[in-house]
Amino acid sequence: MEIMSLEKSHSLTQSLWRSEQIRLLERQAAMVAGISLFELMDRAGLAVFEQARLNWPNAKEWWIFTGGGNNAGDGYIVARLAWAAGIKVRVIQVGDAARLSGDAATARDAYLAQGGLISSLIAVEYQAPDLIIDALLGTGLTGVVRPEFVQAIEVINQSSAPVLAIDVPSGLCADTGQIKTMAVQATLTVCMIGLKFGLATGRGPDVVGRLVLADLGIKLNSASQQPVASIMQWSSMRLFLPKRRVGAHKGEAGRVLVIGGNLGMSGAIRLAGEAALRCGAGLVRLLSHPAHQASLNVTRPELMTASFPDVNRDHINDSSFNDGDWASTLVLGPGLGRDNWSEALFNAAMQCNKPMVIDADALWFLAKGFLGKGLAAKKPPLAAAFRSWILTPHSGEAARLLGCTVPEVEADRLAAVLSLQQQYGGVVVLKGAGSLIADERHVRLCHYGNNGMASGGMGDVLSGIIGALIAQGLTPFNAASLGVCLHALAGDVAASQGKLGMLAADLFLPLRHLINQDDEYDDTDATTAPCG
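Above: the chain's sequence. Below: its structure in token form.
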């Protein structure tokens, strides 16, 4: 998904809303502006028509699929405008057009009065038009798609024509990003008035194509409504990049201790460690299985190494974890594993009252100890840790932490990240398409990144980035937010040389470039950074 045409605001981020919030706010805004809801519908249709002409100026035949609600009304307005412009228009009504009511019926009647025609789905020949407009279901969908709409969506998706979706691709839940049945695969989605949350996370990025926001010339008064989340823009997030004084020394840049690296998994801790160095940490030490200590820094001598005793051979006591006192920040989990050694190391690390990033198998142990107990059952020093730790689960790890299934997490990612934060405290990063970052007051969403990052080690790099930013003085919430942005943008830069086959280590040079940006520079410039 590429988000474009968003107004840059003076605030840090761009707002994301539930559909019902937008419906309420648009009614209020229309009343304040003294315009009718039909005029807003007319503006929506015009916005779609203009985007269609802008993006496909040579399209001479348009098919417009309409359903039974206001989304259909938008479609009929587009059809009327296209007909008047000399475009060959075919409106394909799913369901009975006579059952339309209110403003949608008014839009239908205006189209018919101009000489327009309406076809049924059964009459559609399977040759491709030049453009398809999806005005089937809109933002009101919450359940499964009815069979006749499934058939229409199949026709749309089987066509070779580009598809413009009005407000939301039909079949996608605008509030959650879930697809319960199937959804239109849009080339471009024109979202009205305010961005709906589900367009930017879950399955939303799979189907929205390019995303354009049309504000319809009204200003939302959000005093009575708070957005559910905010989209992070690099042009604002980069202001959080750590600053160094001219005479700074390495101790001021923070000490990161990366903990993990069990037998056969030394690569994870190595990736996390270099990521921390590349993001400005002054000193980084890798605490791993004794078998790896001598080899972990062979190709990166700037990394220091230490080992945690082998529980099968060595006696472990409180002095076994002196490295925790040295560090300003811990990154716990990369390559940790789930055996007795892993558990002993996890338990030792959890006794440190230091800010920490908890990832990978450390989340497995955390779930094992916390599930069903909640924060109230924890005792100091662990109780103090929730305020300064950052959990970074993907949906599988989130499901274990919540005691549910992966489909339940993906059905409502916002609810999942809020539940994780309420149960475990601190800051939670729910990774995936449209990663979410939540603390006790706010949720931020990252719309950068790409599917080339679906490869091993990417999460280890992210944990190292966040650890480095905490070590350099950022708050956990800002460190997690900036870290997710840096990680995703570095992935976009690396993807300029191809997504398939992209490795986690390919992010290191783009990361170094991004954290050293000190010029005026907007979001689109970020992806032109050199890959080295």
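The radius of gyration is 26 Å.
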